[in-house]
Write a structure and sequence with these properties.
241 residues; alpha+beta; seven-stranded antiparallel beta sheet; 2 helices; globular
C-alpha cells in the first residue's frame, strides 16, 4: 500500500500578453487554467495478500475458537453469526497476518505524516456469518484507523458498504443525472478472499445483505490501529503512551 503523498499540480501564472486582445463580439468570456482541488479527501487503502493461504490458516484457528465456544453467538432467523474474542492479535497463529497489518498501517501513518513513538493493534476479531447476513452501519471509536481482511467470501455474499461522513452536513440534495466521485455518498466494495481494506475509523460502514445461493460462511477479520506517544498540540496535549 505504498501510496505517494498527493501533490497539487498548480501551474505557473500565465504570462501577460504582449498586447491586449480585443474582446470578441461573438465568443463569450471563459476561464483559462482551470483546476479542480479535491478538498479533504477520505482515503480507502486496499491490497491483496501475496500469500492467500494465510486466509486458510487463519480460518482453521477461527474454527477452533468457534468449536470451543470462545466468543459470542447470535441467530436471526436462519442468519447465523459468530464473533470471536477481540484479542486475536495476541495468538501465535495470527502472527503472519499481524505482521502484514503492522507494516501496511505503518505506511499509512507515514502517508498522513503522523508523529508517533509506535503504533499497535488495539483489537482484532473475526465474524463468521451466513453469507447473506447484514451488519448495520457503524463506526469504530477509540482508534485512528480500522481495517478488515476477507478470509472467506462465498460467491454473491454481502459486500462492505462505506458511507460519507458528510451526509449529515447536507441541507440540499439535488437530483443527480449520474453518480460520480463528487456526488456519491456511498461506496460499495465487493468482498474478495485475501483483500485487506484500511480506512480512517470515523468512516461509517456496514455489510449489505448478500444474494448467495449456498450456505457457506462469510468470514471477515477486523482490526483497529492506534498510536503511542505524546501529542504536542497547544491546549490539546495528550499522552497516548
Amino acid at each position: 500500500m505504498k501510496v505517494p503523498l498527493p501533490m497539487l499540480d498548480v501551474p505557473h501564472a500565465a504570462k501577460p500578453a504582449t498586447a491586449p486582445r480585443a474582446a470578441s463580439s461573438t465568443a463569450p468570456a471563459e476561464l483559462s487554467g482551470k483546476q479542480v482541488f479535491k478538498l479533504f479527501p477520505t482515503p480507502l487503502f486496499t491490497g491483496m495478500l501475496s500469500d492467500i493461504t494465510i486466509c486458510d490458516r487463519v480460518e482453521k484457528k477461527l474454527r477452533e475458537l468457534q468449536r470451543a465456544g470462545r466468543g459470542s453467538f447470535a441467530a436471526k432467523d436462519a442468519m447465523r453469526a459468530y464473533m470471536s474474542p477481540d484479542d486475536l492479535q495476541n495468538l501465535p497463529e495470527m502472527a503472519e497476518l499481524v505482521d502484514v497489518i503492522m507494516r501496511e498501517s505503518a505506511q499509512i501513518l507515514d502517508i498522513y505524516a503522523i508523529k508517533r513513538d509506535s503504533h499497535y493493534i488495539t483489537n482484532m476479531w473475526a465474524n463468521i456469518a451466513h453469507p447473506n447476513r447484514r451488519h448495520t452501519m457503524h463506526m469504530h471509536p477509540n482508534c485512528l484507523f480500522s481495517g478488515i481482511v476477507y478470509i472467506k467470501t462465498p460467491q454473491h455474499c454481502g459486500p462492505t458498504v462505506f458511507a460519507s461522513p458528510r451526509q449529515l452536513a447536507k441541507n440540499l440534495e439535488p437530483t443527480y443525472l449520474a453518480k460520480n466521485e463528487f456526488n456519491a455518498d456511498v461506496f460499495v466494495m465487493p468482498p474478495e478472499k485475501g483483500r485487506m481494506l484500511l480506512w480512517p475509523s470515523h468512516v461509517p460502514h456496514a455489510v449489505e445483505e448478500g444474494k448467495a445461493d449456498e450456505s457457506e460462511d462469510r468470514i471477515v477479520l477486523a482490526f483497529n490501529i492506534m498510536i503511542r506517544g505524546r501529542v504536542e498540540i497547544s491546549t490539546a496535549r495528550l499522552d497516548l503512551s
